[in-house]
Predict the structure.
Amino acid sequence: MPKLLLLPGDGIGPEVTAQVRRVAEKLAPQITVDERPFGGISVDTLGTPLSDETLEAAKASDAVLMGAVGGPKWDGVPRPMRPETGLLRLRSGMQVFANLRPALCFPALADASTLKREVVEGLDIMIVRELTGGVYFGQPRGIEVLPDGQKRGVDTQVYTTSEIERVSRVAFDLARKRRNKVHSAEKSNVMETGLLWREVVTALHAREYPDVELIHILADNAAMQIVKNPRQFDVLVTDNLFGDVLSDEAAQLTGSLGMLPSAAIGAPGMPGLYEPIHGSAPDIAGKGVANPLAAILSFEMALRWSFGLHDLAGRLSAAVTAALDGGARTPDLGGKLTTAQMGDAVLAGI
Ligand code: IPM
Ligand code: MG
């Protein structure tokens, strides 16, 4: 039986993943759904943000769907006990090196963006963020005290040829199924890893993907172009840190963080990790008003990428579009529906 592991996590995580469970039970009853503690709740109950059991269960599933982790309660705790550290360990432990973050503007929501409708209408960008390397994991790192009493903080940005190649392949393969264009963003003008990134992507392109249009772009310029003329982008591949920043920026183009899913994938046949782009939203947690669509659309990505159930994925995405076209709106979209009512609206279209 295909297996989905839910990691509801913290804040609004349990509320939005509860809707995923309802959708999964109706749309794909052949999938077994399991649940494990993860993040702050796991710190509180098990003394660690990611227990060995949860990591093993994740690796033994076909797909893992996470709600959200973190919150003010755990802001002051030492780094190994931070919910975010659990997330990094999960990504690294599952070896999901390519993070697919679509920024898609739903026609019904074009006016929800802070940018003009004519700039964002029809927008469809896929950011491919490297997820298990770079400055997030590079050694050495730490804060030391110098002899003169000052402190010195160090992070290390590091990439190897194979790390750059495997994530770039995901980007080129995706582009072939889309509009056949890849932007590769780095800072080759100031960083050694940026120079290597450009060199490796250029060589891979010449060797295996000459049919795909490749444009190198400096990451700061990419940040500017994303708000200036976002529709020039099809697939944008970049490192872990630039990908973190640029994907938040691209998400805002679409009007609501509550709408955007993501998929983290590794080698073929390995389980994928799916998560909404939004965080745990402590300000609205427990109120039952969070938008569950990002989590539901993350499940849609899981159906495609991990379960290979493309028909069901198509039906789910049609049900979400129909709910929005029918006027279903949670407060983040200017409406009054609760989380469960938005779930009802999607279920009605399945
Ligand atoms: C993201 C988040 C995470 C990251 C945090 C929560 C560790 O910002 O998924 O974009 O920085 O990768
Ligand atoms: Mg981020």
About this structure: The chain has a mean pLDDT of 96.
